[in-house]
Write a structure and sequence with these properties.
286 residues, alpha/beta, Cobalt-precorrin-4 Transmethylase, domain 1, Methyltransferase, Cobalt-precorrin-4 Transmethylase, Domain 2, 5-stranded parallel β-sheet, 5-stranded mixed β-sheet, 11 helices, disordered N terminus, binds S-adenosylmethionine
Length: 286
């Protein structure tokens, strides 16, 4: 009886060996991608859940600015874990310039990058690794990861961790409710969502919107402000209250500029900052 037992377990060795190789190569399903909302500023406005996932990451995908920003606020992101910038060639100054001058070249590069990122993440997950993709603010509000990089990616392979969005921090800076009694709805939009890449969606929607008391929040580079203001001026009065919340949530840099539709473009030009600001229109900006 004893002898038979030994023979059986010896026979099982190759099977166990192959199983180990398989698990090592294809993972034990414990690998996962986390798309983590890092909040609008530094780690004091990042959710505890997000920070603990970043701590347990094997591999991190983020913009070069993210570890720098968090270091400034005293939170260390291990540079040894950062694989590469997943948005290289998709967003950023250089990419935006190419997008304007040669859209097809930009689109081809962006598609190549998306494939590269998805293949990289899949290979890490298959090896049982925890991959963390860091998004600014909340990943579900104009976050480039879900919206762009993970298009078509198997949903069972990733989780999304909510983050505080720039609009939450902007509301706090304004010390106003976006949803006060007479406001019918809050609109989160961008010039491209509203008007299309080349204005092909038109601006009729603004005409309809202008009938209602709305809080409008525009996600955009402030370099596009002239175009948005010109469109708003067709349907809204010159005294429509507008606020720009610069660096919402940053303890040392946050700044609120309050103005009106007629004067906002000039007021913004007087300031140096051209990039990080949220454009808020409506009563809460008064
Ligand atoms: C690609 S979107 C990312 C939005 C992000 N997912 C969120 O939930 O806040 C980038 C735009 O968000 C706005 N933004 C992001 N962080 C901001 C901040 N701390 N202060 C002001 N605006 C911010 C700016 O309009 C910027 O052009």
């Amino acid at each position: 009886m004893h002898k038979v037992k030994i023979v059986l377990s010896t026979a099982a060795i190759p099977f166990v060996f192959i199983l180990c190789l398989f698990l090592n190569a294809y993972g034990d399903n414990s690998g996962k991608l986390y798309v983590v909302g890092m909040g609008p500023a530094g780690p004091d406005l990042t959710a505890t859940r997000a920070l603990s996932i970043v701590r347990k990451a094997d591999v991190i995908l983020c913009s070069p600015g993210m570890p720098k920003k968090f270091k400034m606020f005293g939170t260390y992101i291990d540079p040894g874990k950062v694989a590469f910038n997943p948005w290289e060639g998709i967003i950023g100054e250089k990419a935006s310039r190419l997008k304007k001058t040669d859209y097809d070249a930009w689109a081809a590069g962006a598609e190549k990058q998306r494939k590269k990122v998805q293949e990289f993440v899949r290979s890490k997950i298959e090896k049982g690794k925890t991959v963390v993709m860091m998004d600014g603010g909340d990943p579900c509000v104009y976050g480039p990861s879900i919206h762009y990089l993970l298009k078509g990616f198997d949903e069972s392979l990733f989780e999304v961790v909510a983050g505080l969005g720039a609009f939450n921090a902007a509301g706090a800076a304004l010390k106003q409710s976006f949803t006060s009694n007479d406001v019918r709805f809050v609109l989160l939009t961008s010039p491209q969502s509203m008007f299309g890449k080349n204005g092909e969606k038109g601006d009729d929607i603004l005409k309809d919107l202008s009938k209602y008391e709305t809080t409008m929040i525009w996600y955009m580079s402030l370099r596009s402000i002239d175009k948005v203001v010109a469109q708003l001026q067709k349907y809204y009065p010159p005294d429509l209250p507008i606020a720009i919340v610069y660096y919402a949530g940053y303890p040392d840099k946050e700044k609120v500029l309050k103005s009106r539709l007629a004067s906002i473009v000039n007021d913004v030009k007087k300031l140096d900052e051209q990039w990080l600001g949220l454009f808020v229109a409506g009563k809460c900006a008064e």
